[in-house]
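Table S2 (text version). Query chain:
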Amino acid sequence: NKSGKIMGKKLVFAILLAAGLGLIFFGYNESTNITSRVSKALVGSYSNKIMFCYIGGGIFSFLGLIGLLRK
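Corresponding structure-token output:
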């Protein structure tokens, strides 16, 4: 069934979008805690964990959004 396949793909893209937004939110929460602020003040940049959350979240969100907007 063609509409079932389309709905399945849309579900995958919606999950990607949600996961991406979740990673971005998690990265933001991590970046605002006191440990991360002290680390950024001393080192001058965020930890790898936070950067991976931002980058991965951006990629997942982008792919999910493109997949949902495609016909």
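Notes on Table S2: The chain has a mean pLDDT of 90. The two ends are 17 Å apart (CA to CA).
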